[in-house]
Design goal:
mainly alpha; 3-stranded antiparallel beta sheet; globular
Amino acid sequence: MSTMPSVRYIYDRRRTATDVKPATVEIEIYFSRQQRKFVNTGIQILPEQWNESIVVKHNDADQLNNTLLGIKKKVERILIAMDVDKEPISMQSFNARYEGAVKPTSFIDFMYDCICKRQIRDSTRRAHIAAWETVRRFGKMRTFSDLTPETLKRFDDFLRAEDPKRCQVTIHGYHKRVKPYILEAHKLRYIDYSPYDVFDVSRGTSKEREPLNQYELNLLRDAELPDKLARVRDVFVFGCYTGLSYSDICLFRYDKDVVQSNGMYYIDGERLKTGTKFYTPVLKPALDILLKYNERLPTISIQKYNDFLHVIELRLGLKKPLTSHIARHTFATTVTLANDVPIETVCRMLGHKDIKTTQIYAKILKTTVERHVETLSKII
């Protein structure tokens, strides 16, 4: 029996990480002193978030650790299969299997491996992992021969039956995240054609989000809440008065992101989702929250954050759903556009690449119409 190579995690192999600059976690396969392969896991974290072989102090630590374990198990499975097949175990033969020269049999494994290897943002990777988990629950797209238009139709039906509240936009999103891996399978000649060439999914129309109006925003700010809910409320209000998305709030650091100009404080940052620059004010309600928490905002996982927001929504008797994105929507409408801040300025504050994106937020509020009509009436 061949000597099995050792497999272990390696963090920051090139020694580039700093307190604010993340580095990559890799998996080292040690064949010999002259032959070592490093598998990029696509996971980038800060030094304080790595402890020998696990991710710690990260909002998505459990999911990231599961991803790392999945990649490591795949490597170990390939090595074991080579040993069982009595194939000489070398870096070249391992690469042939790992990179797909030997056709895999499981589309489920293939999709997961592709997600792990793709150079995509962590937030995008989480969404693709969620889609993969849905495909796995569906259970009828296990092999490449399962990839047919009929199976996609059954998958579409499954998405609707599993959660009747899923709208067409959400269902389209699942297909959108599965499609690249089916196209990749076709590119590698694992399937003869992409079933998406035949099965088409309409995008549908998004439900219009309702921002908080000024009365609801004041009600939320002034509410007496238990400590855990109060902390979630404060983070949400911070988003309402800065326009930051929850993922950007989690990365926010006062000492490196805040600048001062003419007596005002601004956040000069870059969006995690798109990489675009934004420059937004820290208005007094947001500044008060920063002072309350000594400039370090509390954060929890996005799932728990949204769960607690729904609890607050019910507790205050709000007639519209509270979600993480409603804070950003409220900033764009109630806080800025309703107070006559030009849409071009709001676009810069939000970090939108195209003003057309900002125009989606620019729903004219009744209060804005009434105020302008009062002014117009006086003039006439």
